[in-house]
Each structure stands twice: as structure tokens, then as C-alpha cells.
Amino acid sequence: MTTYDAAPPRRLPWLNTTHHRTALTLFMIVVIAHWAEHLAQAYQLWVLGWAPPQARGVLGLPFPWLIKSEWLHYGYAIVMLIGLFLLRPGFTGRARTWWTVALGIQFWHHIEHLLLLVQAQTGHFLFGRAVPTSILQMVAPRVELHLFYNTVVFLPMVVAMVLHLRPNETEARAAGCGCARPAALPGR
């Protein structure tokens, strides 16, 4: 017999309760490391004046094949998407809204990387281009576009994290994790 008034099961309940802070910390380390790669590449391009093929971020300098690997870029996009999806149940209220915004934007970013990966694997390029090209690359160069994507995913994540760590009383009562700072919890 099925009951419809029961709450839907939560994905990986331990991830969004007792281990939420640890999971968020590890996820944010990965996100910030990736963000640093994009910022290093931007610095190489716009401050040092390097040509785009030479501006490969930090890891791309000793390992040039990394920057050209669509599998690597798609892999990161899918890790981000999965992380945002799996950690979302741990957020409540305003923080959940902002986390969901980041998830939605990352979903589109993932689609763009999937298009690039499929083109790289098949050798059939969109829009008559000689290289894999995403949809929004028609209006912005790839480096700038992906710096933009990572910015518009990262910023709502930061807002979500701040709101998650400093919830109002209603959000703190609804939270299933211990991420909030003790001073932010009701009755303290």
C-alpha cells in the first residue's frame, strides 16, 4: 500500500545531515580550485598579454593536453552538476533558492560542455566551425564565456553558503545539518 502523505525520501540523507559541512567544504575546495584555474588563465591573457593557445591556466602549463581535453572539461561540468544536485537537500529557505539558481545555470553550462564533447568525439562541428563550438560561443569567445559561466554559477553558490551558515530562525529550525554557526541558531 502506498501512502502519499509521507515525505519523499531524501537523497543520501547522511550527506545532507551529519556530513553536510564536510561535503560542502570538499565541494567548495574543488570549485575554488577550478575557479583559480580560470582566473589564472584570464590573468595570463589580459595582464601578461599571452596568446590564447599559451594561456592555459596553472595545470595547463605543465600538462598542455589538459586544456584541450573536452573529457576533462565535461567531467568537471558533470561533477559540478552532481555536487549541486546532491547537496541541495541540505539547504533550506533563501539559501536553497540561491543554490537552486546555481544548479539551473550549471545545468545549462553542462549542456554546453556536452555539445563540445560530442563534437570533439565525432569530428562534426556545429555552425560550420573548424573546432568544437558551443551555442553561446557564437556571441562570446570560449575563454571569456567559460569565465562568465563559472562566475554566474559561483556567485549564487556563495550567497547560498552565506545564507546557509547564517540562517534566520525559521531556516535554522528546518535545517537538518549542523552547518549554521551556533550564534545563528535560535535560543543562543
TrEMBL record:
Residues passing through the membrane, by range: 20-36, 71-87, 147-165
Protein name, entry field: Uncharacterized protein
Keywords: Membrane, Transmembrane, Transmembrane helix
Species the sequence originates in: Actinoplanes teichomyceticus
Domain of life: Bacteria
